[in-house]
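Human
Can I borrow your eye for a moment on a structure tokenisation matter? Give me a protein, with the fold worked out from its sequence. Write it directly below this note and I will take it from there.

Assistant
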Amino acid sequence: MVDSTPIYGLPYQEDDDPPNGPLLSQSLAEAAEAAIRDVGRVVGYYSNTGTVQTVTTAGQTICTAATALRPGWAYDVTVRSQVSTSAALDFLPQIRRPDSSILVDYGRQGLPATGDRFYEFRCSFRTAPTFTAATVGIVFRGTVSAGTAAFKGFASGPFEMVVRQAGAYDDCPGAPTY
């Protein structure tokens, strides 16, 4: 059994392979277990209990998570923060590649007038099957139209950016491709 599926690497028997049910069953079970273990695995993480970044009218990087990406996988990104604003504002969150090109532009988010608020940003992206495995910095960046927004940890936990493997490339149709 030399052949395997392209994404999860699950082995399968071809017509010209000699029959070997027990070996095929064991190989398939072990490969399936490894693939299931990887779904939901955290591959990038950034955490800070203090003020991470104060965003003003100019675009600024809020945080970067070093992330080990593999070809043909879908990824989920979650950012959790307390946001302190000096005025009501529009915030434009983005996930960027290390070369600063935009991977995900989530669109304008209205943040309420002054005070501290919980903020959560979620998005998905995927790597093409032809992507070369690499560790890259997934960048969370923001621009505000007026005023400032301070992103920081809060009483119940730190500011976090978490990147998880979500499944195969085809499990996330329509997601931006890295």
